[in-house]
Write a structure and sequence with these properties.
globular, alpha/beta, five-stranded parallel β-sheet, Rossmann fold, 5 strands, 226 residues
Length: 226
């Protein structure tokens, strides 16, 4: 297979790490992109840097776009992160960051255009997730159309140029855990928690922690990060 360039959004969590590992295993030249968006917990950026190196990304960049100045989310303000929610995914929680994936994908798109790459990857998932509107298949299809309308590369190509991939979209968290293990990915460095303690210790009670725990339990495996 001829190596191809791809930009992969990497948060340092389970889903994005599995996506990066999958992209690299399939022979892509992966350019990992993490966003410092003013999130309260900084540990995920340190984890992302280490994960990109361990998995063999061609390069890893961290871009700063401070969404905390806009507010509107418990991840970027002093609003308490919800814990022990009974029905995860039944509504859009306060941990939703306004327009986050649109902003992240736009930055990934800009880098891809500079690189001459056609493909953007992210770890979006629409089964076991917190109910965010920018993780749905129809949203990603719409962004792909936008990418091909709003860029020089897209306009000058004689066919749709950019493609947005979410290879984990229809997988449960248990399926994602199994896939990561099958790929030989070390999940001990990943951090999914919205509100970790000192040293990145997961709180165990936020939506992300509970979905992750559910995934490992249903996969019949122990979470090496705990």
């Amino acid at each position: 297979m001829v190596p191809r360039d791809a930009v992969v959004l990497l948060s340092g969590g389970l889903d994005s790490t599995t996506t990066l590992g999958l992209v690299i295993r399939e022979g892509w030249t992966a350019h990992a992109l993490s966003i410092d968006y003013g999130q309260r917990q900084r540990e995920e950026l340190r984890r992302a840097e280490r994960i990109a190196a361990d998995l063999g990304a061609a390069e890893h960049r961290i871009l700063r776009v401070d969404l905390g100045t806009l507010g509107g989310s418990a991840l970027t303000t002093d609003t308490p992160v919800p814990k022990h929610r009974e029905e995860i995914g039944s509504d859009i929680p306060i941990t939703y960051v306004p327009a986050r994936n649109t902003i992240f994908l736009s930055l990934a798109l800009a880098w891809a255009e500079v690189l001459g790459a056609r493909d953007l990857f992210l770890g979006a998932n629409a089964l076991d997730y917190s109910g965010y509107p920018d993780c749905r298949p129809d949203y990603l299809a719409a962004f792909e159309r936008l990418a091909n309308l709003a860029t020089r590369a897209g306009v000058e190509a004689d066919r749709p140029w950019f493609r947005v991939h979410a290879p984990l979209m229809q997988l449960t968290k248990a399926d994602i855990v199994r896939k990561a293990v099958a790929l030989g990915i070390d999940l001990s460095n990943t951090l999914s928690c919205y509100d970790p303690g000192e040293g990145g210790v997961p709180c165990g009670a936020c939506d992300a922690c509970r979905l992750r725990a559910k995934g490992f339990e249903e996969a019949g495996m122990r979470d090496p990060a705990r």
